[in-house]
Structure formats: C-alpha cells, structure tokens
Specification:
single chain, about 375 residues, seven-stranded mixed beta sheet, four-stranded mixed beta sheet, globular, binds pyridoxal-5'-phosphate
Amino acid sequence: MVEDPADWLARLAHKADLRARAGLRRQLRPRGTGDQVLDLAGNDYLGLSRHPAVLAAAASALADYGLGATGSRLVRGSTRAHAELDAALAGFLGVGAALVYSSGYLANLGAIRALVQPRTLIISDAHNHASLIDGCRASKAEILVTPHGSVPSVETALAARGDRPALVVTESVFSVDGDLVRLADLHAACRRYGALLLVDDAHAVGVLGPGGAGGVAAAGLAGEPDVVVTMTLSKAFGAAGGVVAGPRELIAHLVDTGRTFIYDTGLPPPVAAGALAALELIRAGDDLRAELHERAALVGKRLTDHEVSEPDAGVISVTAPGPEAAVAWAAGCLERGVAVGCFRPPSTPDSRSRLRLTINVGVPRADFESALDVIAECAP
Ligand SMILES: Cc1ncc(COP(=O)(O)O)c(C=O)c1O
C-alpha cells in the first residue's frame, strides 16, 4: 500500500521526538567570521587550515584554475595541483602510488570495494569509523566484527576462515577515543595468514611517524605490499579530500574501475594546492607535533576528576554521565567560549557518551590551558 505523504512526515516527526526524549537531537552551529571560540573540537591538529603559506597556495590556484574542478578527475577535474599532490603523497607515505579523492569517506568506500573479491571475509574492528563500516557493507562481502584492538581475535578469525581471501580493516588512531592500534602485531598476523590489511590513517597522518607520515610509517609498514593506507586531507592538512595509497597496481585499478573515484567531481583545485602546501609544513613540523603531544598529555593531568582516555595522538575522550549531560556540558563550555566535541550514540562505538577534545596547536598554549579549566568548571 502506498503511504500517504502526510503519514511519512508524521513518522519522521515522531522519530525526531523519540530522539529528543533520548537526548539525541543534533544541531548545526554555523561559525561566524569573527568567531573567537577556542577550538578543541575540530581536527585542525597542526593549525594549518589558516596558515599563510596554505592560504597563499590556495589563492594562487583559485586565480589560476577557478573554484571548482569542473568535472570528475578523469574528465576535466585533474589539474597539475592534483597530479603533484598525488605524487607528493606517495613519496610522503612511502608507497608506490597515491590517489586523491574528494573526501576520505569516498576514499574508504573505493579502497574497500577494490580489495574485495568473491568470497572475501572482511574482518573489521568494532570501533571503526562509519565510512569504513559503510565501505564494508557496500562491498557486499561477509563482515566479521572483532572486539576493539584485539589482535588475537583477528588472528583466530583468520585461522578459521579456511581458503577464503581475507581483508582486515582498521583505523590506526581511532577517531573517538584516540587510541592507537598495535599495527605491527596486526600486520604480522595478516602476513602469517595471507590477508590484506587496510589502515585508515586519518587521525595519525601529520601527528605520528617520521615527518608526520602517519601510524603506518611509525609502525615500519610503509610500502609493504599487503598494506593499503587510506587517509583524509581534512584533519592535520587543514584542507579537505581523501587519499588511497598503496601499490601502483591498486591505484591503476582504482583509476580504471573505482566508482567513487570515477563518478565524482574532483577536489576543488584551490584545496588541492592548499593541501600540497600543507604537506611541506607537515614534513617540517616536528616542533608542532611535540607541542601537540605535550598538550594531549596535559588533558588527563588537568581533568583529574574525570575518566579521560590515554592519548596516543591528538584525540582525547572524556566520559560524560549520559547523552543529556554530555550535551549540557558541551553547551556550557561553548557559552564560555570553548568548543568541544560532544559524542553520543550512535556516533560512539559503545553506549558511553563523551566529550571529545582534539588538540589544535594553532590555539595559543595559555588559551588551551584556560580552556581545560573551563571544561573542568562546566562539568555536570
Ligand atoms: C577515521 C576517519 N576516516 C574517514 C573520515 C572521513 O573523512 P572525510 O571527512 O574526508 O570524508 C573521518 C572523518 O571525517 C575519520 O575520522
């Protein structure tokens, strides 16, 4: 039976009401140009989104190429800035080749699809980001979710799978709690059982590894033939866009067949050029990384009355008593000029609601420390 239009809207309103009662409504809060809020919520880890060299490169590409890419990367959407960025990222990550997508979400969808064959078993960490989960689901392969960070569980699943191809999917630094997976051990298990390993290095690139080359490089796995790296340019790069990096054959396969690459407009050229400038700053950014790690360690020392995650990178989570309390806590901080992330189910990997704090070394150190005081004072 066809539903009456009024009924489906009533159904959506009813669902919104249920979410409101559970403290799970979400709100957009547009930033103004004179925004003075201290940012402990974004992912601009190294403060590069407004760096003069990044802005100058983007402005120059804007003048040269215009605003949009005007087409998919295979049609008119690849400029020299895109090609240089692909090549520079491959060198930076220590892989055969890299390919820039318009978002990290689409890069994950494309990479997972390319790595799945008929009968592949995907083994996916329980805390994986939604884009990895959606990539696994869209691939139509069988998915086994293993307990978070448990290498023995992955190993057991690999041993039990028989002669099927297997793909292990994980983040390096997890996006909600900021913990780093034991990548070398995970890779050793994959190698032992002949599985491919896909690592989403979104929160580690720029922050960990030699010259900021990420969690995979930090674990000594850069360029391994059974490892594929995905990442986003929307975090430490302060830009936007996604990347798949790995053996040349994989990148050629994605260019020829990857639907989320082929049927999507390329990254805007000013963003590609800005990201290329950001890459140079990241390589030279050891001092920024040292400052980031110092600040991350400070959070637990200041918020001693709360459950604070052990930071391996620039993401720290602070447990809140429940979803409404998390919302009220974050709102209280914002009223006092401090933006913090507020994560509630279903955006958390378990039923816990949290404040998520992210380090942005572009925020002056003294302001960062006062922001921690504000967070402590606004606690429910
Ligand atoms: C771990 C992880 N992977 C992928 C993405 C998606 O990247 P993008 O925002 O570029 O689509 C994000 C966040 O946005 C993320 O945190």
